[in-house]
């Protein structure tokens, strides 16, 4: 019984032969499986291809980090507070977060950046924080104080300047 393909009439025998020829063609042109195991390894060696992880010069990353990270300078508490204030003047002031999406920072965020840039170390930042707390007479920590919702940047600047002046007078 003839099968109808589109508008062309073709017999079932011719259709079966067409399928057989297509199968034969596809089998003859099928992709060849790659050589197995040792044959592949032999071909890789013959081509001079080096496999495995790429070799890395020893200490390259460590040298790059040392080159780009500032070394801590011995700065006074007064200088650290002045740098902290300058960072906040450049980037802006933020409350209730160390850094916000607009790159503004709080006092702690500015102190952290100052230490990272080499203006003192964690101990210097700690002494500066103690001095800021001392200026607030124990009413609150400087972090709590600056996060008060009625606090203004002018008040924060005044606190940092007063603490820097005190540190300058005390020679710390």
Structure description:
It is a single chain. By secondary structure, the protein is mainly alpha-helical. It folds into 2 domains: 1-30; 69-170, no CATH class. Helices cover 58% and strands 3% of the residues. The protein has a two-stranded antiparallel ribbon with strand order 1-2. Strand 1 and strand 2 (8-10) form a beta hairpin. The chain starts with a strand and ends with a helix. The mean pLDDT is 79.
Quick structural gist:
The chain has two domains: 1-30; 69-170, no CATH class. The protein has helices at residues 12-28, 37-47, 60-68, 77-91, 107-116, 122-135, 142-146, 153-170; strands at 3-5, 8-10.
What would the keywords be for this entry?
3% strand, elongated, 58% helix, two-stranded antiparallel ribbon, mainly alpha, 172 residues, single chain
SSE map:
Blueprint: E1 3-5, E2 8-10, H1 12-28, H2 37-47, H3 60-68, H4 77-91, H5 107-116, H6 122-135, H7 142-146, H8 153-170
Antiparallel strand pairs: 1-2
Helix pairs in contact: 4-5, 4-6, 4-8, 6-8
Radius of gyration over C-alpha positions, nearest whole angstrom: 37 Å
Q: What general outline do the C-alpha atoms trace?
A: elongated
Number of strands: 2
Helicity range? 55-70%
Strand content: under 5%
The stretches of 5 or more residues where confidence is low (pLDDT under 50) are: none
- Assembly category: single chain
Continuous helix count:
8
Helix and strand element order: EEHHHHHHHH
Give the overall average pLDDT. Answer: 79
Number of domains: 2
Largest sheet: 2 strands, antiparallel
- Structural class, by secondary structure, is mainly alpha
* Amino- and carboxy-terminal Cα gap: 106 Å
| Side-by-side strand order of the widest sheet | 1-2
